[in-house]
Specification:
By secondary structure, the chain is an all-alpha fold. Helices cover 62% and strands 2% of the residues. The chain contains 24 helices and 3 strands. Helix 10 (231-239) crosses helix 20, helix 15 (329-336) crosses helix 18 and helix 19 (386-410) crosses helix 22 (449-469). The longest helix is centred in the middle third of the chain and has 25 residues, at 199-223.
Length: 494
C-alpha cells in the first residue's frame, strides 16, 4: 500500500460525509498558523483561528486546527496562572541546557531580555534550584570569557544577577515549591499530554504500572538465577554478566548492529497482523553504525526517517558498548525502528502536519514507540528468551520511572537524593543513553513531559487492548485510524 492510500483509507472513513463536499481551506489555515508567531498572546492567536470551520478542512488540517486551538487555550491559562519562564516548556528562562549563553555567538539584546525576565520571575518566587543555578552561573561565566563586546558584558551581568539571587534559590527542585506551582504543573501536564488529568491521579496510575512491572521483572530475574536484593540491584547484576557483553572493538560493535538487524528481520513478518498493508518506505529501514568520528565523540543515537526513495536508519550509540548487554537491544529495535518510530513518523510526515501541531502534541510520538514495544511483546517477541524479556521490562521500568520522578519532584516535593534512590531501586541501571543524574536534571527543568509520555503510552495501551478484544481486524483498524493523519492530543484520540 502506498502511503497516500494508507492515509486516505483511514482518513476518509473517519471524515463526516458532508465534509467531503465543502471547499477545502487547508492553504488558508496553514497561512493563518504560520502568522500566529507575529501575535503576542494566546488569546490573540486563538482569535485569528476563529473563522475556520473544521468541516472545510482535510482530516490532517482539521487535526492541526483542533490541536492548536486546544494548545493555545492551555497557554492562555498558563499565562493567567503563572506568567514565568519559557511558555509551555519550562518555568525557567535559562538553565544548564537553555539560554543565550549556550549559543556560539550569543546576542546581547536577548541576554538583557533574559535578565529582565529572570528578575521578574524571581518576584513571582520562581528561581532555579540552587544546584542548577550554580551550574548555570558557572557556564555563563565561562561563556562570558569567550565572548566579546556587548555580549561579554551582558553575560557578565547575567552571572552577577544569578549570584545576587542565589541566596533565595530553593535547595531542591519542584514546581510545587513556588506560589501557584501546583496549578502550573497541572496545566503543563495537560498541554503535553493533550487531556486534563489531575497530577495526583497521573502519579497513582503510573505507580500501579510500576508495581506491576516490578512484579514481572522479579519473576523473570528469579528464573534467571537472580533471587536476592531489590529488582534494581538484580538488574544491575544481570548487566554485568560477561556472557552477554559485546567486545569493545569494531567486531563487537558490528555484531551489535547485526543483532539489531536480525531482530528487525524477525519483526517484519508480524506487522501485517498488527497493521495490515503499510507504506513500503516504513519497511525500508535498518540499524547502522555511526561514522567513526561520531562514535568516538559518544554521540547519542539518532535516526533518519524513511521516505519514498530514501531508506530509514537508526544509528545506535555504541561508544560505551560494554554498558549495553545484548539482551537490551531487541526492545530498542521495536521502539526506534519497527513497529515504533519508523512506522509512525513516516506516515505522519506524509500528512504534512503543521509544526504547531508537533508543539501542542509533543508526547504522542514517544508514547507510540513505547506502546509499540508492548505490541511486539504481546506478539510473543520475547517468548522463550527471559533475558530479552528482562531487557524489555527494564526499558519499561525506565520509562515509567521517569514519569514517576516527574510527578514525584513536581507535586510530591521529592528531593534529588530521593529521586535518585527511587530510580536505582526501580531499574538499577540507567538507560544507556540517559545517565540517571542527567535525566533527573532535565525532568526538573522541563516539568510534565516525561509524565505525559508515560500517560500517552498507558492510554494507547488501554485503547489498544479494547480494540484487541474485538478481534484482530479491530486492532488493525485502530492502528490505521491512530496513525493515518499524524499525531494528535490524547483527548482527540480517546
Amino acid at each position: 500500500m502506498h502511503r497516500r492510500q494508507f492515509l486516505a483509507a483511514a482518513s476518509v472513513a473517519a471524515l463526516p460525509r458532508a465534509a467531503l463536499a465543502v471547499p477545502n481551506r487547508d492553504a488558508d489555515l496553514r497561512a493563518a498558523l504560520d502568522g500566529l508567531a507575529k501575535l503576542d498572546t494566546p488569546a490573540a492567536r486563538r482569535a485569528r483561528l476563529k473563522g475556520f470551520d473544521p468541516a472545510s478542512l482535510s482530516p490532517s488540517a482539521r487535526i492541526d486546527l483542533e490541536t492548536v486551538r486546544a494548545g493555545l487555550a492551555v497557554d492562555a491559562e498558563l499565562l493567567r496562572s503563572l506568567p514565568v519562564g519559557r511558555l509551555g516548556r519550562s518555568p525557567y528562562v535559562i538553565a544548564p541546557n537553555a539560554g543565550a549563553w549556550r549559543e556560539k555567538a550569543p546576542d546581547a539584546q536577548r541576554i538583557e531580555a533574559e535578565n529582565a525576565q529572570i528578575a521578574a520571575d524571581a518576584r513571582h518566587g520562581v528561581l532555579l534550584p540552587a544546584p542548577l543555578l550554580e551550574r548555570t552561573r558557572s557556564g555563563i561565566i565561562a561563556a562570558a570569557g569567550k565572548a566579546t563586546g556587548p555580549a561579554a558584558a551582558a553575560l557578565a551581568g547575567q552571572a552577577r544577577l544569578l549570584a545576587d539571587l542565589a541566596p533565595r534559590a530553593p535547595k531542591e527542585p519542584g514546581t510545587s515549591r513556588f506560589p501557584g506551582g501546583a496549578r502550573y504543573f497541572a496545566l503543563l501536564l495537560e498541554r503535553h499530554y493533550g487531556a486534563a488529568i489531575a497530577p495526583a491521579e497521573a502519579h497513582r496510575q503510573m505507580l500501579a504500572v510500576a508495581e506491576a512491572l516490578t512484579a514481572r521483572a522479579d519473576a523473570v530475574l528469579k528464573r534467571l538465577g537472580h533471587a536476592q536484593g531489590t529488582v534494581g540491584a538484580r538488574i544491575s547484576a544481570a548487566f554485568k554478566d560477561r556472557r552477554f557483553l559485546y567486545s569493545d572493538d569494531d567486531a563487537g560493535r558490528n555484531r551489535a548492529v547485526a543483532d539489531m538487524n536480525a531482530t528487525l528481520a524477525a519483526t517484519r513478518p508480524h506487522l501485517p497482523a498488527l497493521f495490515g498493508p503499510l507504506p513500503p518506505e516504513c519497511l525500508n529501514v535498518s540499524a547502522l553504525r555511526m561514522p567513526p568520528q561520531e562514535e568516538a565523540e559518544g554521540k547519542q543515537g539518532y535516526r533518519t526517517i524513511p521516505a519514498p526513495g530514501i531508506a530509514g536508519a537508526y544509528f545506535p550509540d555504541l561508544a560505551r558498548i560494554r554498558d549495553r548487554p545484548s539482551w537490551t537491544l531487541p526492545a530498542v529495535v521495536h521502539h526506534e525502528l519497527l513497529p515504533g518510530h519508523m512506522i509512525q513518523l513516516p506516515i505522519e510526515a506524509a500528512s504534512e502536519p503543521h509544526p504547531l501541531r508537533i508543539e501542542y502534541a509533543p508526547a504522542f510520538a514517544e508514547g507510540w514507540a513505547i506502546y509499540a514495544e508492548q505490541l511486539m511483546a504481546a506478539r510473543g517477541a520475547f517468548a522463550g528468551d527471559d533475558h530479552a524479556l528482562l531487557g524489555h521490562l527494564h526499558w519499561l521500568l525506565f520509562r515509567i520511572g521517569r514519569g514517576l520522578v516527574d510527578t514525584g519532584v513536581h507535586i510530591g516535593q521529592e528531593t534529588l537524593a530521593q529521586t535518585s534512590s527511587k530510580l536505582a531501586t526501580l531499574q538499577g541501571e540507567a538507560a544507556y543513553f540517559a545517565p540517571m543524574a542527567q535525566d533527573i536534571e532535565r525532568i526538573c527543568i522541563e516539568p510534565a513531559m516525561r509524565a505525559a509520555e508515560a500517560l500517552t503510552w498507558l492510554g494507547l495501551t488501554r485503547l489498544g487492548s479494547t480494540a484487541q478484544r474485538n478481534g484482530p481486524e479491530s486492532l488493525r483498524k485502530f492502528h490505521r485510524r491512530l496513525l493515518a493523519d499524524g499525531r494528535r492530543r490524547f483527548a482527540m484520540i480517546a
